[in-house]
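Quick one, probably user error.
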């Protein structure tokens, strides 16, 4: 008896009778030999990707069980598209119907004619939401995380990798959470550039932590200018991964905590033009841990100017970071609890490095995408 595989198919349409086309495709899938449609998500409306000026899409995800091979199933899907009037044009062009083989059991297929899992499904909220309605705990065969976890990283947004930009991965979190240590380990695992915060070269920072608040603005401006040197697009290579142990957006967090009203007013006038000179991250890794654990790390690394940091200050920073990422839509965010992640274990580091590879743009991967679609 032939093996029966559970597969997931994405459906989309933005021309003509959009819902009729999707329901017609579902009917034809159900009529396909050796194939049973066992579940369908809600049909939702989404904006087209790539900033193109075209009608909105209707999208859905179908769960099927089939004894067909992935290749034969894919050919059947192409036949359904053709029979419903699909005209194949350039990438992300409007279409009457679009069918994408998202997952085929736990198989990983990389062929000229077919790539499974779909290369960018984990960057599409509309796909992940549909999958979550069908099976939220389903694991991605490459990333090894559940659909529910992958969806939580996107903040209801959809993202398109751009290999023409620096592939900056920024770590974020309060003082002492382990950003620098993890940055070094990740960059070593990936063999990529690392960007470390200029703590030790900031001549004002020790005095600021010692209570000389009149130097707080000098310290913030030092950090601001150093970040321009580190994170401007000319300092980072196009299409190449770089991992930083800070996120540029933390600047306002610290400014609002450390500057007095007069200093902050001046800083907030100076700050905006600098943001235009910074490469935006394509992925953020947000680290969290208890204040007590962070204090233990601070005392262990024994930077003299940090030893007087109070728990209340770290708690306030933690609230600021939570607020920053509460409605973050600039890029995907991987949340890591450091109470569960062990950066002394190669398995944990390798898993995270593998995840990062799935979120950054690779020119070769983008160029070789087999079946381009609305996704």
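Nope, works fine. Designed sequence:
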């Amino acid at each position: 008896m032939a093996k029966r595989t559970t597969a997931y198919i994405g459906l989309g349409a933005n021309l003509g009778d959009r819902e009729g086309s999707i329901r017609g495709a579902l009917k034809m899938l159900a009529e396909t030999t050796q194939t049973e449609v066992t579940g369908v998500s809600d049909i939702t409306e989404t904006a087209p990707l790539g900033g193109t000026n075209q009608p909105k899409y209707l999208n859905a995800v179908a769960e099927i069980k089939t004894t067909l091979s992935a290749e034969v199933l894919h050919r059947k899907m192409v036949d359904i598209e053709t029979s419903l009037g699909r005209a194949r044009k350039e990438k992300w062009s409007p279409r009457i119907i679009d069918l994408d083989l998202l997952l085929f059991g736990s198989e990983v297929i990389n062929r000229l004619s077919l790539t499974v899992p779909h290369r960018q499904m984990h960057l599409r909220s509309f796909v992940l939401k549909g999958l979550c309605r069908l099976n939220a705990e389903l694991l991605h065969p490459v990333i090894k995380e559940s659909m529910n976890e992958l969806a939580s990283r996107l903040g209801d947004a959809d993202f398109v990798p751009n290999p023409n930009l620096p592939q900056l991965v920024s770590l974020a979190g309060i003082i002492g959470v382990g950003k620098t240590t993890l940055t070094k380990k990740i960059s070593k695992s990936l063999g990529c550039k690392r960007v470390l915060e200029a703590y030790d070269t900031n001549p004002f920072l020790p005095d600021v932590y010692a209570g000389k608040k009149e130097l707080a603005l000098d310290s913030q401006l030092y950090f601001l200018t150093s970040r321009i040197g580190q994170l401007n697009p000319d300092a980072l290579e196009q299409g190449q991964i770089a991992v930083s142990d800070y996120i540029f957006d933390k600047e306002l967090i610290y400014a609002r905590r450390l500057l007095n009203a007069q200093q902050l007013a001046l800083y907030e006038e100076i700050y905006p033009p600098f943001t235009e000179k910074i490469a935006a991250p394509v992925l953020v890794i947000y680290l969290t841990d208890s204040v007590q654990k962070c204090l233990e790390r601070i005392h262990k690394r024994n930077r003299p100017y940090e030893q007087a940091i109070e728990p209340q200050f770290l708690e306030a920073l933690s609230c600021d970071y939570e607020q920053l990422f509460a409605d973050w839509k600039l890029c995907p965010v991987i949340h890591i609890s450091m109470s569960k992640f062990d950066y002394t274990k190669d398995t944990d580091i390798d898993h995270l490095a593998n995840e990062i590879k799935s979120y950054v743009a690779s020119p070769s991967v983008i160029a070789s995408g087999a079946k381009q679609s609305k996704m």
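The chain is about 40% helix and 15% strand.
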